[in-house]
Amino acid sequence: MADEAQRQFYLAAAGVRLWYARHPLPGAAPSPEFRFPEEPADVVPAAPVAHAGDAVVAAQPEGRKGASARERGKGKGHIADLQSLMDGRSAANPARDEQLPAAGADETAVAVTSASPDKPVVPSVQLQTWSGTQCLLIGVLSAQSSLALQQALAENILKAIGELEARPSEILRWPLFNNTAVPLNQSVHLESFLKDWLPQGDHRWVIVLGDTGPWLDDALVRRPDIRMANSLASLAGDPDSKRALWQELKRHRDQGL
């Protein structure tokens, strides 16, 4: 039994926690590996100790320190004593204890101190463009709405102002890597990519639908002619925003901008 207790302790130290059924399971054969014995009547709960090698001696009352190793390992209380070493703080590592906040300390202040205020923000966006003869539409797509519905709405917007053969681009999904800690995911890299991905220096006026960051204006090297915070998905269910967009489109079309 002592060997089984030590085996569980060392497995717990390595991060491996075992599970044993305390009662027979229906249809399961009896397990010969470990059986929980009856708890001895004179077992006294032991306090956590610093070292695994001293656990057997320290876990016993003063009068039982001379008992044999087999007697000291009896009982599932001994398992709990060993496992408590893994859950409590070790007294043999005072340097680690000094780094922990004192009781009653302000947890918010600790969290703010450990946070990195200079960590760059990684943009998360899906973009698609539609290029017509006089207009370039840049739309923010939503993953929670039908992609076909959003694309059809963008095409209908352009058809309403006479762009009957607008060419859609491939969908740009950012960040580039799923691991946001990769440096190439930052907004400066998105801006650099958009400078090659978006048409530059042409006569077309630009419509941006959706919430974007300053990286889009920097990539366009100009301000969009029409900008709405509503994405294509939100426009589909907002008649008032559709009406406001239509008024802006009519004004630009009539003025020949």
* Overall 3D form: elongated
Task: Please report which band the strand proportion falls in: under 5%, 5-15%, 15-25%, 25-35%, 35-45% or over 45%.
Answer: 5-15%
Question: How many β-strand stretches?
Answer: 6
Ends distance: 87 Å
State the major sheet.
6 strands, mixed
Helix content: 25-40%
Radius of gyration: 34 Å
The unreliable regions are: 49-61, 63-67, 94-98, 100-116
Query: Overall pLDDT, averaged?
Result: 74
How is the topology of this model organized?
Elements (H helix, E strand, L loop, with lengths): L1 H12 L41 H4 L10 H4 L3 H12 L6 H6 L7 H8 L10 E7 L3 E6 L6 H14 L6 E2 L3 E3 L12 H11 L7 E5 L4 H7 L5 E3 L3 H5 L2 H17 L2
Parallel strand pairs: 2-5, 5-6
Antiparallel strand pairs: 1-2, 1-3, 1-4
Helix pairs in contact: 1-4, 8-9
Describe the structure.
With 257 residues, the protein is of the alpha/beta class. The chain folds into two domains: 2-93, no CATH class; 125-255, no CATH class. It has helices spanning 2-13, 55-58, 69-72, 76-87, 94-99, 107-114, 147-160, 187-197, 214-220, 232-236, 239-255, and strands at residues 125-131, 135-140, 167-168, 172-174, 205-209, 226-228. α1 packs parallel to α4 and α8 (187-197) packs parallel to α9 (214-220). The longest helix is centred in the C-terminal third of the chain and has 17 residues, at 239-255. The protein starts with a helix and ends with a helix. The model is unreliable at 49-61, 63-67, 94-98 and 100-116 (pLDDT under 50).
